[in-house]
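Bumping with the actual sequence this time:
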Amino acid sequence: MDTLFARQPIFTVDNKVVAYELLYRNTKQDDQSTNFEKTIDVLINANTLFSNFDVEMASKRIFLNFDRKLLLDNIIDILSPREHVIEILESVVPDKIIINRIQQLKRLGFRIALDDYTINYPYEEFVDVADYIKVDFIENSVKEIIELSRREKFKKKILLAEKVENENMHNLAVRLNYKLFQGYHYAKPIVHKGNHISINVKTCLDILLMLNKPEVAANGEKFVDLYKIAKHIERDPVLSFKIIQITNGVRANLYVKIDSVLRAVTLLGYASLHKWLKILLFQEASTRSKGNNKENVNKEVIKSIIVRTAFVENVLSKNPRLKDILGEAVLVAMVDLFDILFEMPMEDIVSSLDLSKEIMEALMYDKGDLAKILHLVKSYEAGDWDEVKNICDELSLNYSHISDLYVKSLDDSKEVLEELSKEEYA
């Protein structure tokens, strides 16, 4: 049985639990997960593997650790400003991009907490935008804790005494008018265990394809058929379980009983479902890589996929003839690198995923427009400009714009790519 995550309660001065911080836990001695992977694991495990999560956490805020990459990631879209507090790790540096992002999140209603605050904390920019200051009662001396409590800026913040381990620390925090308290003196983190169960990658990819390619009604309007998607999810019991649990976790304020996968999908919504499926796929890729004694997901493969998908979207989205196959083209560009990412032969990947005839022919036999689009991407990556021009002519694409579109794709992916360069994925 695996250690999945832990949660540590946060108390008021009256000893009432008003929030929990979710903490990453892993018993593997050689675990080298990045901060990004840790929060992803915590978020997924808490929402899919803890059956009483919504009951015990009802009306309580959840503190989640965020590094720079997570702050910039659209995972925020699946969180609730009413329920989740964004806790900025001490490793985050406040440049213009990050400050703008935090201000955007505050406008959405999210509250911001600073983690492990000490007397020598260098970034006043974060203090200005924070709602909670989590003062470290171990790293700061008594004199420093008293000095911090007298700071003018702190009078407008909610002070949280963190790592309180004895009665003396508690009494000091109370005398200094701290509002919230966390530490071993009150309660140790509650560890939750369970088994990691792999999802069906093929089912996830099929659903992502359906979400990326809406159907067309008789009147010409496009729509996503949630009934078909629900029936597809039902093919995989594990995925069905996780989707229902995720829906329960993110809709804790609704008094609606989920009696089917369709109801869960409807409550979750297709936009959130799309994001959760991608997060589940990321976790699955990470888990499989570590299971094969590989330290982390191959950084260069991840970077290539990010740029590839952006490039395909930019090339096809404005093309009247090709934009209708955008969903398939993006999937082809991704799956083309799955043999490296999942360390499986492409034949096995295509066979196990039961891909459409068009996608299979593109990947295995280099046939069709999808194959030409993939060939265009790979030729550009290889710097084969003559071949790029030939394919552009075949697909009626403007060759003179391709370079600009690729640069735009790099720019669209810049923030994530910069973070991948900092994280030790490989």
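The tokens above came from a reply further down the thread. Confidence is low (pLDDT under 50) at residues 50-55, 292-297.
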